[in-house]
Design goal:
mainly alpha, 4 helices, elongated
């Protein structure tokens, strides 16, 4: 599931200028939620993890959006790929 999350993150980063950070975070969390649900995760920890992942994903995509066309964008990009672990 980790590899799928990273591929989704990379795809959403490419779409970020046209869809915005909150939509990108929503798409990421929806895909992660469905994937974890299909792998048989318990519902309550899954919901809590989804809320936490949405918060982290929103901050990540917002930072990417705000640092666009600066050198700091690369730091945020590489550092934020660890969000795939959540």
């Amino acid at each position: 599931m980790f590899a799928v999350k990273i591929v989704v993150l990379i795809g959403l980063i490419r779409l970020l200028p046209s869809i915005g950070p909150i939509t990108a975070a929503g798409i990421y969390v929806t895909i992660a939620f469905i994937g974890n649900l299909l792998f048989g995760a318990d519902i309550m920890p899954l919901i809590i993890g989804t809320v936490i992942a949405f918060g982290l994903a929103f901050v990540y995509f917002w930072l990417l959006h705000m640092t666009e066309e600066t050198m700091l964008w690369w730091v945020v990009l590489i550092g934020g790929l660890f969000i795939g672990f959540v």
